[in-house]
Amino acid sequence: MPDVGIVVGGELTELGARAREAEDAGFESVWVAETARSAFVQAAVAIGATSRVTVGTAVALAFPRSPTITAMAARDLAELSGGRFVLGLGPQVKGVMERRFGERFEHPAPKMAEAVQLIREVLATFDGSPIDHRGRFYQVTMPPFPGAGPPPGPIPIYLAAVNRVMLETAGRVADGISGHPMTSPEYVRDVVRPAVEAGARAAGRDPAEVSLTTNLIVQLGRDVEEARAEAALQVGFYATTRTYAPVLAHHGFEGLVGPLRRAHAAGDFAEMARLALPIVDTFALAGEPEGVRERIAAYDGIVDRVILGPAWVGPSPDRVRESYELLLETFGRG
Predict the structure, then answer these.
(1) Percent of the chain predicted with pLDDT > 70
(2) Calpha distance 43→19 (Å, rounded)
(3) CB–CB of 53/22 below 8 Å?
(4) Is the per-residue pLDDT at 334 higher than 70?
(5) What architecture (CATH level 2) is domain 3-218+287-331?
(6) What does pLDDT average to over the chain?
(7) What is d(CA 91, CA 60) in angstroms, rounded to the nearest whole number?
(8) Contact 122, 67 (CB under 8 A)
(9) In whole angstroms, what is the distance from residue 131 CA to residue 34 CA?
(10) What CA–CA distance (Å, rounded) separates 326 from 223?
(11) pLDDT at 1 over 90
(12) Residue closest to 234 by CA, chosen among 180, 181, 311
């Protein structure tokens, strides 16, 4: 089996306890997402509540922040954790970037590659290196204020990647990828691994240097049909985003994108779940814990780590909590 991490989230006053539960249950890592709450604040809470487990962002948004600010936050989290922090970065998608964050969405793959380079250059300044970065997207010639030393060790940088160009970029410049939950073993084997390996080789790197991590939609419940319907809504929500259309197309499901987008625009979540239910077993793991645990084995040998996350679009807070507790019970190694 690959290493097994888990997504933690929810109210900040409860997040630390959830991270500690995951550590006590024997999970290899805990991860926070940047949706309703800041990834870096959540990561700090998870770090403060744990002592052994790796803590990562899956993912923090790269482009609304200056790479200098991102590097400073990563340095601080590495210090706070004693070297247990992984910086996962993502570009988000055009509509979200422009309409939610007021940022131009331009050339995401080359911009991300330069951001990673600049973040590493800023991190090096904490060890006394000068900085004179004059790139296509960023110009930084002044280090952060003095007063903070270097992090306790190298900070791994993972990139969120779905399509070939960003996957190849990750292979060239990143320490790992954080694969999107809208995935499948087939997509990882046929698209993700070959593209990452091609990017690594093009940069003269050993592909084994790039850790392959993938997020998964895992919705557990004793009521199998309820769990599958909840997972279907999550799949349908992701499938409305054009960036993920190639994942559906790889499996022959591209015809669902239009109907799902229309249902989403109408606010018809029931229709979204109905449309996505026939594909839920392709892009999610849902149902009773025993059967889902067996299906995780399909990722053995093709990824280094899986990150398990319950559906978060639609289920009640009680169901989110129940699914999380079942994940701890089913996949914990403590």
Answers:
(1) 100
(2) 10
(3) yes
(4) no
(5) Alpha-Beta Barrel (3.20)
(6) 96
(7) 9
(8) yes
(9) 29
(10) 12
(11) no
(12) 311
| C-alpha to C-alpha distance for 143 and 139, rounded to whole angstroms | 12
pLDDT band at 333 (very low <50, low <70, confident <90, very high): confident
Cα torsion 260, 314, 55, 331: sign: negative
Q: Left, alpha or beta for 287 (phi > 0: left; psi -120 to 50: alpha)?
A: left
Q: pLDDT (tens digit, 9 = 90+) per residue, 130-185?
A: 999 999 999 999 999 999 999 999 999 999 999 999 999 999 999 999 999 999 99
Per-residue pLDDT of 88-99, as tens digits, reads: 999 999 999 999
CA–CA separation, 141 and 138 (whole Å): 10
Residue 58: both structure tokens together: 């899956």
Strands 85-90 and 60-61: what pairing?
Answer: parallel
Q: What pTM was estimated for this model as a whole?
A: 0.96
Domain ranges of the chain: 3-218+287-331
Q: What pLDDT does 222 receive?
A: 87
The structure tokens listed for 208 are 């084994």
What tokens does 227 get? 């769990």
Amino acid at 179: G
pLDDT at 61 over 90: yes
Task: Burial-class residue 108 by CB neighbours within 10 Å (0-12, 13-18, 19+).
Answer: buried
